[in-house]
Design brief:
CATH topology of the largest domain: Rossmann fold
Radius of gyration: 22 Å
Low-confidence stretches: none
Distance between the termini: 70 Å
Number of domains: 2
Strand content: 15-25%
Bound molecules: adenine
Strand order of the largest sheet: 9-8-7-10-11-14-13-12
Shape: globular
Largest sheet: 8 strands, mixed
Length: 422
């Protein structure tokens, strides 16, 4: 059932991609349960849906679920370096999905692929980083009116969309899936925490025990990365611009200091801030010989590679598969992983399926919720409804074979009353 519309690397990779999709599916019980229900109820029938996501085995299972619900889905990449070409091939060949994504595609091709997803004339969009929505606003603003919901998967995307809302230019309703508890508490913390280290270890084979690891940013992703660094035996330094987060890091037991100070101490630097030029010339100038630098934030803007390039006497590309060596004037080497792109998807397979299960279940149920509403949501950034979060949490608990207690009548009354005191 190969789909005629597609641009992927090589369709002969499909068998390997299919094996990976089905392997991931084993660890995505919540999405599977939703897929089975969707196939019966067809809640997305008649909906054209364009998704701009990392093209991975886990995303393939989301796409299968949306399709089972009756949606006509087109998929393009949300990052030029994260596509799994075998998965893209299988989606086209085995599941009849038009996919536009090739690992390593240049900027031009990346945006052509987004254009192809927009040409699908979507009623619902899903973004990871808000590139699809930004392009719709830039080039096809007339489409906004027919879009009933636009789901956003990641912190960076939500930040961009809230900026659009503040400036009064947001033309369509956004559902901030990233901000659902069933997303950030698990995906951002445990997903990024584990997969960032997966990427660093695959790229370098380093021993983490005894290293000084500098984590820039203590949001939910930073918390996860720092927690796992500690588990691997590193001394962990956190840098922050937010006083509350800095305090929290300190009381979680991490060293907290300005990045300029940490620059001279760290062996490994990981940016997870969502902001630009976090690591810049003044930091590179202080780093030790052999320092390793990488990013796990959405965009490749957190490390100022232009500044590093200016400081470098020589650049040795690919001294290892995902490692570039920058040799400075005085002979010190700084190693950059994954070209400063998000390391968990550049050098590893991204978050494990089990955690994407919750994020993508939240996506699928949010799409269903928005579609069922009698009135179109206002063009603002909306929260995922509590009923969706509860449904995902309950399904996940059931899948993990975990039962919880219920309030007794007496306890419920106690919580609802105010008369009882000391
Ligand atoms: N973001 C991080 N990990 C991912 C994965 N495995 N699939 C899709 N998006 C992701």
């Amino acid at each position: 059932m190969t789909h005629p519309l597609h641009h992927v690397k090589d369709l002969t990779l499909a068998p390997q991609g299919k094996r990976r999709i089905l392997w991931a599916d084993r660890d995505m019980p919540v999405l599977r349960a939703i897929r089975e229900r969707f196939a019966q109820e067809l809640p997305l029938e008649g909906i054209r849906l364009s998704a701009c996501l990392h093209v991975t085995a886990e995303t393939a299972n989301l796409v299968r679920t949306l399709k089972a619900g009756g949606a006509d889905v087109v998929l393009c990449a949300s990052n030029p370096l994260s596509t799994q070409d075998d998965v893209a091939a299988s989606l086209v060949h085995d599941f009849g999905v038009p996919v536009f994504a090739i690992r390593g595609e240049d900027r031009d091709t990346y945006y052509k692929h987004i254009e192809a997803a927009i040409a699908h004339n979507p009623h619902i969009t899903i973004d990871d980083g808000a590139d699809l929505i930004s392009e719709i606003h830039r080039n096809r603003p007339e489409l906004a009116e027919q879009i009933v919901a636009s789901m956003e998967e990641t912190t960076t995307g939500v930040i961009r969309l809230r900026a659009m809302e503040r400036q009064g230019v947001l033309k369509l309703p956004v559902i901030a899936v990233n901000d659902a508890k069933t997303k950030y508490l698990f995906d951002n913390r445990y997903g990024t925490g584990q997969s960032t280290w997966d990427g660093i270890l695959r790229a370098t084979d380093m021993l983490v025990a005894g290293k000084k690891v500098v984590v820039c940013g203590y949001g939910w992703c930073g918390r996860g990365v720092a927690m796992r660094a500690r588990g691997l035996g590193a001394t962990v330094i956190v840098t922050e611009v937010n006083p509350l987060r800095a305090l929290e890091a300190a009381m979680d037991g991490f060293w907290v200091m300005p990045l300029l100070e940490a620059a001279a101490i760290g062996d490994v630097f990981i940016t997870v801030t969502g902001n630009c030029h976090v690591l810049r010339a003044e930091h590179f100038e202080r780093m030790k010989d052999g320092a390793v630098v990488c990013n796990s934030g959405h965009f490749n803007v957190e490390i100022d590679l232009d500044a590093l390039e200016k400081l470098a006497k020589t650049i040795n590309r690919k001294v290892q598969e995902h490692v570039d060596e920058y040799v400075l004037e005085d002979g010190r080497a700084i190693f950059v992983l994954g070209e400063g792109r998000l390391i968990n998807l550049a050098a590893a397979h991204g978050h494990p399926a089990s955690v994407m299960d919750m994020s993508f279940a939240t996506q699928a149920l949010s799409a269903e919720w928005a579609r069922k509403l009698e009135q179109r949501l206002e063009p603002k950034v909306h929260a995922v409804p509590g009923e969706v979060e509860n449904a995902v949490a309950q399904l996940k608990l059931r899948a993990m074979d975990l039962a919880i207690d219920e309030l007794t009548d007496e306890q419920r009354q106690y919580l609802e009353s105010w008369e009882l005191g000391t």
